[in-house]
Write a structure and sequence with these properties.
Mean pLDDT: 81
Helix content: 55-70%
Largest sheet: none
Number of strands: 0
Structural class: mainly alpha
Radius of gyration: 21 Å
Length: 306
């Protein structure tokens, strides 16, 4: 965390309060704030692919945890802070996509010094200039203090949101699995699965089955502690559920990366030396990933570009 990144006041977000009430929801929210502050400082130090990715995921976790709090705990200051973090997330989306497309093209055999790849690198510098200005302002802001809340109220609200998201994912996955060309529906399902994953991570942490403040709940630790926690919610197999959700998210993310690369190839077709070959390669990769996600290998391959 940067030197100028301080916690505002005491309240439910102070370090002493966290240690006195291990595993309770206010403690989780403070972890999310601390994690975002660290990722933001790392991003200011270096705007590499890893730093951009880590910053974006920390924003998603912060937004998810904050949204699961009761209205009384979501203060005007905390809502403003999360909104500023989300704005930074959105502005970095294009940078993240450029990195993904560039790496995907090179894995497909497109030379790194070719025009399509070089074009992606050229656009990154100017976009970063304005973004870094806003990032520095946010890093200089004080972290919002989170008021004390009833942990049972937070847990009940979080559970409702988890089961609601499970239902949404079920509906979205049925639509996505019915037609391989439904890229928009797959993208929406991927975003819903992310929200579900981060709330499940909160559930694991609140049950005391993981001490990882980064939000990446250790499956092994969760499974071991679950043996001694029969009241864990939603049930004792939470770690397996979380691992399954993470796999779906990763699979859907890999397909989405193919989709944005396909769109880039289509938009920049004349810049490629052999566009049809590159296009066919990424289409085949997407098809294989799609079959893995829907659990079937009997669907016909998509029509290839001649």
């Amino acid at each position: 965390m940067g030197k100028n990144q301080k916690h505002a006041g005491g309240g439910g977000g102070s370090s002493n309060d966290s240690s006195a009430r291990p595993g309770l929801p206010p403690d989780i929210m403070q972890r999310r704030l601390d994690l975002f502050a660290r990722r933001l400082q790392e991003y200011l130090d270096s705007q590499g692919e890893e730093q951009i990715h880590n910053l974006r995921t920390s924003v998603r976790r912060l937004e998810s945890t904050h949204g699961a709090l009761p209205k009384s705990a979501r203060t005007a200051r905390s809502k403003k802070y999360v909104m500023r973090a989300k704005s930074l997330f959105r502005r970095n989306s294009r940078l993240r996509d450029s990195d993904v497309i560039r790496n995907t093209l090179m894995r497909l055999g497109v030379p790194p010094d070719s025009e399509p790849v070089a074009n992606l690198s050229r656009g990154k510098g100017p976009a970063l200039f304005d973004i870094l200005g806003d990032a520095r302002k946010l890093a200089a802001a004080r972290l919002p203090a989170m008021p004390p809340v009833d942990p049972h109220a937070v847990a009940a609200r979080r559970k409702r949101k988890i089961w609601f998201l499970f239902d949404v994912v079920r509906r979205e996955s049925q639509v996505m699995a019915s037609d391989e060309s439904k890229t928009k529906e797959l993208h929406e399902m991927r975003k819903t699965v992310k929200k579900l994953r981060y709330l499940l991570e909160d559930e694991v942490m609140s049950a005391g089955r993981s001490g990882d403040g980064n939000g990446d709940a250790g499956a092994g630790t969760a499974r071991n502690n679950a043996k001694n926690n029969r009241n864990a919610s939603p049930d004792a197999s939470m770690s397996r559920v979380l691992e399954s959700v993470k796999k779906v998210q990763e699979a859907a993310g890999a397909i989405h990366d193919c989709d944005i690369t396909i769109r880039y190839i289509s938009d920049n077709y004349p810049r490629f030396e052999n566009p049809s070959k590159t296009f066919n390669k990424i289409q085949k990769r997407r098809h294989a990933l799609y079959l893995d996600l829907v659990g079937s290998r009997e669907r016909p391959e998509p029509h290839a570009v001649p």
